[in-house]
Amino acid sequence: MPPPPLRNAPQLITYVDRLAGDLVGLGEVMRGPFGGAFGGTHLLPFFPPIDGSDAGFDPIDHTQVDPRLGGWAEVGALGEDFEIMADLIVNHVSSESEPFQDWLEKGEASEFHGMFLTRDMIFPDGATDEELAAIYRPRPWPPFTTYEVAGVPTEVWTTFTSEQIDIDVYHPAGWAYLMTVLDRLSENGVKLVRLDAVGYAIKERGTTCFMLPACFEFISQLRTESHKRGMHLLVEIHSYFGFQMEVASRVDFVYDFALPPLVLHALHACDAEPLRHWLDIRPTNCVTVLDTHDGIGVVDVAPEGDKPGLLEPAQVDALVEAMHDASDGRSRESTGAAASNLDLYQVNGTYFEALGSDDAAQIISRLIQVFSPGIPQIYYAGLLAAPNDMALLRRTGVGRDINRPYHSSESLEAELERPVVRSLLHLLRWRTSESVLFDGAFTVGDTAPDHLVMRWEREGRSAELRVDLADRTYEVDVDGVIVTSVDDLHIG
Questions:
Q1: CATH classification code of 11-89+173-440
Q2: Domain boundaries 98-165, corresponding CATH code
Q3: Residue of 54, 58, 66, 196 marked catalytic
Q4: 196 an active-site residue?
Q5: Which of 236, 300, 333, 401 is catalytic?
Q6: Residues lower than pLDDT 70 in the chain
């Protein structure tokens, strides 16, 4: 039986430490200067260590809170006022985790023997060059790392980095580990579980080892287990949009990862047609985002083989160039071979700079997001209209750090004084106050390519967004009252 429905209100995506220092501080920010804007929050990995090789996505202990942030009691306290979303990192654990270290020491004598995938488990007779080339990889290096296991050199699957060790999710120890994490999340008030990197969790010889048919069944099993514990399930997969549509029927929520590049295309090319088409065919059980802790995906709208994408190849190429040009080339320094820890399918940079650091485009893009069907999630850097953090990028050499700024209480206070940030917070407060209306009937107007009309109706009430992409102007009509600035929206 599914858990009670989530509130259809904006949620904040944030690293706890990078925005507010710790969990108590985050609660103070969300109840204080962010008050009324959010119904929930996605707490990006808060497990130890929050400053590991992949910013928390390489947990040493997935069942604990990094003590620098607080403890489970602080997570629960935040959950009293906000619906909490947390990650189940399905594919891997840290090389420093106790189970992996135990296996390295004891080998076959370890209780965790079999929990970690080795190359030989998938390719017992060796792998051909063609089989290895077929493996879909998010990084440009081979997906194996050699470790000494009880003194024996062993190639271990490491899909993302050499410090992130892939789990055999079918092995009893691997499955038990995942269930223990789900138990801990549910015991501490988490309402929505995000499956991180689940598309890579199932490996089979002679395949891409990505989003295999068995993976869909595995996701369904995790959904069942999450429901038993009173939690909804959200799947995180960057891939061809057809995969997203197929996954959507098997989970509670799926990310609308096509929305970010389609909104950027609409604003840069003054062309709403691809976005309008997507809004007509997309799944209805979406969590909408424009930016997250990762880069801006392009694979989500691109063709795959002979299957058409939501954008034509020339449009994808033009969009990537437009994003780089809009940032005066800064995003080029963090994307592709220019930076380590890169994704082959994403452009690294803040959404605000991808929009050309244009306040009007920032508000229009967020209006489109909150008018799109689904639960809107707003990344903290996007909320604060952040520029690319070149200093952090150069300090760490990690491409995605360009979009993962750190804030002190003083710098946050300064950001909150910017008009574009104040306007966006007002928009989010209005969207939160109108949650019921946005559970109504949605339509997209048939207009000229450089115009976009999105409309909601419920029980005699209506809200309509009308955007002129060429002029980057908009108006919002709520029950017949038209405003041309989100600052004038009435919060009920």
A1: 3.20.20.80
A2: 3.90.400.10
A3: 196
A4: yes
A5: 236
A6: 336-344
